[in-house]
Design a protein that fits this description.
Blueprint: E1 5-9, E2 15-19, H1 35-38, E3 42-44, E4 47-50, E5 55-56, H2 59-65, E6 67-68, H3 69-73
Amino acid sequence: MDGHKLWVRFLNGETKVFDFTPLLNTPAFQPLQDMETFRSVYIDYGVPVWNDGDIDIAPEYLYRNGVSFDSIVSA
């Protein structure tokens, strides 16, 4: 997706989009300001991770704070 957005599909079938932009100035997520690093995301045991696991984010957080993909498409 454009920008620092992550499209996520959860085990219950729901799809959401999470915008990392507000988190990019926090120390834990600053390396993700670099688009190449951000795009290097992969899933490890159900958790999105970057930099060989040095950076991760709880899927529960993404679920609670993500926006339904369906609501974005229909807007």
